[in-house]
Every structure is written in C-alpha cells, then in structure tokens.
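User: structure tokens for this one?
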Amino acid sequence: MEAITKQIIKHQQAELDAVLLYRKLSALMKDKQTQKLLLQIAADEGKHAAILKNISGKSLKPKAAKAHFICGLYRLCGLNTALNLMIKGELDAVPVYQKLLSQYPQVVEIMKDESRHAAILEKLKSK
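Assistant:
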C-alpha cells in the first residue's frame, strides 16, 4: 500500500474515533447547548470519515480508546483540560489535510471544519 493511502486510512480512522469521542463527551455534559455543539462536531467528523472512505475505499470501525481517555481526563481534570487536548488535535489536523489538498481537493471541507471546530471548542472553554 502506498504511503498516501496509508495516511488517508490513518486519518479516516481518526475521524471515526472523533465521532465516538464527541458523542461520548456530549453525553457527559449538563449544559444542553454544549451537548448540541459537541453533537454537531460529531456529525461533521462523520462526514469527514465518509469523504476519506470514498478516497480509501476501506470500511473501518471506530475505536473507543481516545474517547475513553478524553472522557476520563474530563472527569479527573475538568472540561478545559480535555478541550485543550481536543483543540490541539483539531488544529494539528489542518496542515495534514493541507498537504493532501492538491491530490484530493475534496479534503478542503475537512480542513475548514477542523479550524472551525477548534474555534468552537475554544469558546466552550470560556463557559
């Protein structure tokens, strides 16, 4: 398998894992608006996974390890600590997708969403 395909599959898996993460974290939130925002991000991450599946041709299943870790971090250290890690993940994804843009123009939507997600999560920190 060529390196670019491996990279696509790796990011497809990360997007699927993020769907699970945002859903599980939303279930822990008492604030309905925060729940709603996290579920909207989960839906976006699902769309990202579908875009990447169309490129890779592979069907993957979400892995719960990241969701368990972040939810545990939330319980132990609070929302801001969990959000800081999630913001970093969203922002770190942008340059990765930027590198794929010339070969796969459909990732532009993913790239824009990741930056938008980081901004949403940043606003949640100030709540």
